[in-house]
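Standup notes
- HV: blocked on the assembly model, inputs below
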Amino acid sequence: MRNTGRVKIIDVASAAGVSVTTVSHVITGRRQVAPATRARVEDVIRRLGYQVDATARGLRTQRTTTLALLVPDITNPFNTEVAAGMQEVALAHGYLTVVCEAPMNGPLLSEVLQQLTARRVDGIVLGRYGATRRDLDRVTATGTRLVRFGRRLSEGPGDVVRADETEGARTLVEHLVRSRGCRRVGFIGGAPGIEPGGERYAGYRQALLDAGLEVPEDLVAWTDFTREGGRTGAARLLSADVPPQALVCANDLIAIGALDIARERGLRVPHDLAITGYDDIDAASLVSPALTTVFNPGRDMGRAAARLLLERLEDGEEGAAREVILAQRLVARESA
Amino acid sequence: MRNTGRVKIIDVASAAGVSVTTVSHVITGRRQVAPATRARVEDVIRRLGYQVDATARGLRTQRTTTLALLVPDITNPFNTEVAAGMQEVALAHGYLTVVCEAPMNGPLLSEVLQQLTARRVDGIVLGRYGATRRDLDRVTATGTRLVRFGRRLSEGPGDVVRADETEGARTLVEHLVRSRGCRRVGFIGGAPGIEPGGERYAGYRQALLDAGLEVPEDLVAWTDFTREGGRTGAARLLSADVPPQALVCANDLIAIGALDIARERGLRVPHDLAITGYDDIDAASLVSPALTTVFNPGRDMGRAAARLLLERLEDGEEGAAREVILAQRLVARESA
DNA sequence: CTGAAAGCGCTTACAG
DNA sequence: CTGAAAGCGCTTACAG
């Protein structure tokens, strides 16, 4: 009973009284077809509801017109923004974007990567991953185009798209110093080794130095990227001999934890203590006071990644690996 | 230069000194192969990095071992939970799950749906959509299996998975009445026509009636599913002659708006006014006080949907259309 | 225990 | 302006 209904190119050819060659050409538009013939074929296609079988076409053309986004956590809004951006440009070029999830660590990443290359997707955008060099090389060995997020060009094959984290953090601190006149500015980071904490910290230091301020080493705390981490870090920094006027937090969750502590201690934000987040997750604008933060342009990153892929796929771009760096945007709200 | 590296089954066959038939059988395991031969072939496969071309296999077998989830808004955490749930069960059966986005309205939905059937995905899970009957029929006409979310069985082809919204709302109100002793319980809904507002409202009424309370018509407000809507609705209901002791909000954003108003008026939550949300978005637990709400089991719904698909695909299930209804879970936090 | 060959549904040189 | 036929890379009856 299944598949009975599926109409194929031969069906429309015979219904229209032409060869499959001609039907194929009216579909692809790659060859002139007499207007009358074309009209007849198009009519039959419509009537029969014919749809080309992408599986057969793909086998023949070695192209699937499909782009894949692979991310560690499909639940992360940043990743879904990226997907939306890719979809936007891909669809305009007749490509479909599919998104897949594979855990950050373990063999499942290789597994899913292979599932994707086996299906012959034309290009893969790989989120922030600890993918091994071997995994990456295996992808490009199949001829599949690759764009990576976040890491440097030199670390592997494929083009790279990343956000300018250091500059984003710099802007934030500059806002604190210039617009709010803060001079004692603390920093609460996640684990020091884990990106993008390091870059954000670098931007924080840079901005302070640029403003002729020194980095207050007693006001730097490393915890982790959670609300609880924010509570711990803020509690510690607020008991410094000379307490901070502002707290730069390495992500929004940490900032929300810092907000908790400020509330518990009766500190008015931003009057007594300015607090900034990072990432602009949904909760950043829903919390009270709303968080001043930095927005990671996920959508633009998705667009850029899709363009990079499409240039190699469609325009025959065969040049050297490229890196696209996107600026992050300050979102000034109530907390600073 | 492209594709040069791609090794095919014929390459491993000749390298191993056997026929492609045999190579195929060691891969699929569908026929006995002499241990020595098998070992030799497996060794060559590993050495050459051979990977079957899913495009060719799909053409031959009429199967792609791929499931698709199509959602209106890939950015919605509920949808991404569904994806994660599908992925979980699909992967265990050797299927890959891909998620695609298509806008709620307009021709793009049909377009993407056709892209998916053209690629011969084996099954599609369709999120809450205003898909036309025509779109749905076109999917099943190609033999692609379909699972829909939220709507009733009778409204179209395919199996259905949905959450028990009415029961979820009932549980919530019961909690308010029993555990907190509220008697004047208001309701702030989104637009009355838009699901799942109606079902949640029905559950609210039902619970009140069950508790021997009457539905306070002066304490029901319809606005929209936003924080701003929550502000408007709460402001109106709080100026009733006999103000409410609790506000049941049709989603979390509305509840966050209600929280704003309570704060502005110096009302302590939940002491002076209990407030409940719905959906349990991330912000629900990040806001202060944390929201008591109802959790929509997106992950379980994804699992259920994938199982339904797999039963038809793998177990030859050809029976009547089925509907799976999942319970929602009360998440009691601070706001009520 | 293994192989030769047909065929899945297309596209595209090649030919007229 | 159009068609006959080869071939994309597999799987699977059929045969031995």
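- HV (later): unblocked. Chain B is about 45% helix and 15% strand. The CA atoms of residues 173 and 271 of chain B lie 16 Å apart.
- Next: hand off to the docking folks.
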